[in-house]
Specification:
This protein is mostly helical. It has one helix and no strands. It comes from Metabacillus indicus.
Length: 46
């Protein structure tokens, strides 16, 4: 049981940080994707 607590404490923090960063970057990638998709329309209208 003590070994499991040690493993979770060692590995758990990096997993939480990774999930947080992936969540943050996902919204930025969605915005970037929509902006890139609108780019040809903006270029054609000028």
């Amino acid at each position: 049981m003590e070994e499991w607590i040690q493993v979770v404490s060692e590995v758990g923090f990096p997993i939480v940080v990774t999930l947080y960063l992936l969540h943050r970057i996902e919204s930025k990638l969605d915005t970037l994707n929509s902006t890139i998709q609108m780019l040809p329309n903006q270029l054609n209208s000028k």
